[in-house]
Amino acid sequence: MNAENFGSSERLVTAAYVRQGAQGRRAHELRLRALLEQGKCPEDGWDESTIELFLHELAIMDSNNFLGNCGVGEREGRVASGLVARRHYRLIHGIGRSGDISAVQPKAAGSSLLNKLTNSVVLDIIKLAGVRTVTNCFVVPMATGMSLTLCFLTLRHKRPKAKYIIWPRIDQKSCFKSMITAGFEPVVIENVLEGDELRTDIEAVEAKIKALGAENILCVHSTTSCFAPRVPDRLEELAVICANYDIPHIVNNAYGVQSSKCMHLIQQGARVGRIDAFVQSLDKNFMVPVGGAIIAGFNASFIQEISKMYPGRASASPSLDVLITLLSLGASGYKQLLKERKEMFSYLSSELKKLADNHNERLLDTPHNPISLAMSLQNLDENNDAAVTQLGSMLFTRQVSGARVVPCGSVQTVNNYTFKGFMSHANDYPCAYLNAASAIGIKKQDVDVFLKRLDKCLKTSRKESKKEKSVNEISNSNTGTEQPEDQKIQI
Predict the structure, then answer these.
(1) How far apart are CA 60 and CA 138, in angstroms?
(2) What is the pLDDT along the chain (491 residues), one digit of tens a residue?
């Protein structure tokens, strides 16, 4: 409805009522105008009717929704199912063009506008979360691992002689496979144990750069968010090394946007040294379905190069999901979620420590990890090697998801690389342990129910371990006193 249509409506409905309706519509339009002019996440969240109005306005700008449109090409936004069309708000053309995921589509002005606005709003949120000097970012419809691969493939053209990627070890398959998929050889740098924490071996990184030659190294691939007792890499020191040796630096910031500490590390690393790009997951940081990531950086032209490396058009679903979510929350709503997550981390930490003490275990001291916690399972492991993995099964069958149990000495081969002590980020971590994390969206009820179920599982597991130990002792005792067959025959 525009002013002309409202004017025509006054012939049918009392003018005062129509003007009141027009004012109501105007309130929605002022929100849309502010978003288009500023390109920032609104401070207060929008109601669903405003968001749906906006999405419908975008959709009718795409050619597949034109009245009387005649499409004779191979890709005309045709959708067989009305349910599918409604699921996507009839934004069918996706984002980008064949040569650039950030390019504008002539036949899809609405979808193109959606793409540009989403990138702009996400950039605003990254700044709000702590990386103030970031200059450019884009949403890519791939999860974190493949997004890292895209970054490495872009660097290949800048460093054609390079074949190695320096990688401080983190036992997570997708970030490791991202390097293999890009065609490079990971150079694994083992972590050093400082107290309970596993930290970056800066001296080993620099020594390896000297041994291999800086020109042969594609980049340093570092990590922020991770499972304790691994803690975020020493990003500032790594960034300085990268600047000194003129080596690119790519940061896996998978679920780090929700942590002010992780974001501060990236900001400081860029300030004192070199960080070329940092990659973060949409679902882990913004509570949307899996399948999207944000690639961001401090050099706008390099981030644009990465976007141009993406072959073909792309799905608009991740962009649509995160834009709807951020418009619903508003900047204030997202900041509140970050605040609540931090409070729940403190609560989880204190309560898990109490539970650990009750079971003669301890909460590992990992102050540099702002998201994940680890509780030793040393006594459980001493009773029965299988009891550790059994505990994980018990938790899962009791509908506890996300908790990880890490036994000692497990070996895993990933793409012909063998990792000793896999999942523990070290060859020989001193004890088995259990992980729990305070991630964005977690509630006090989640923590309380988890602790209650963990307590029951630990009690049950120890009871079964003692019973099995008793049976084994009786069996061994009987074996020791039983006479051999040849002695029985002589008697």
Answers:
(1) 24
(2) 888 888 888 889 988 988 898 898 899 999 999 999 999 999 999 999 999 999 999 999 999 999 989 989 888 899 999 999 999 999 999 999 877 898 999 999 999 999 999 999 999 999 999 999 999 999 999 999 999 999 999 999 999 999 999 999 999 999 999 999 999 999 999 999 999 999 999 999 999 999 999 999 999 999 999 999 999 999 999 999 999 999 999 999 999 999 999 999 999 999 999 999 999 999 999 999 999 999 999 999 999 999 999 988 899 999 999 999 999 999 999 999 999 999 999 999 999 999 999 999 999 999 999 999 999 999 886 656 688 889 999 999 999 999 999 999 899 999 989 999 999 999 999 999 999 999 999 999 999 999 999 999 999 988 876 666 666 566 666 665 555 555 444 43
Nearest partner of 148 among 107, 113, 176, 190, judged by Cα:
176
249 contacts 274 by C-beta, under 8 angstroms = yes
| Sheet containing 249-252: order of strands | 136-140, 293-297, 277-281, 249-252, 217-223, 164-168, 185-189
* The two three-digit tokens of residue 216, written as one number: 């042969």
- Give the residue from 170, 225, 453 showing the smallest Cα distance to 341: 225
> Pairing relation of β-strands 164-168 and 217-223?
parallel
How many CB atoms neighbour CB 275 within 10 A?
A: 32
Helix extents (H) in 159-201? 173-181
Rounded to whole angstroms, the Cα distance separating 306 from 302 reads: 6
CA distance 67 to 72: 15
Type and span of the H or E element at 291: none
Q: Which amino acid belongs to residue 37?
A: E
Q: What is the DSSP letter of 430?
A: S
pTM for the predicted model, two decimal places: 0.93
> SS3 of 9, please?
helix
Alpha carbon distance 22, 301 (integer Å): 44
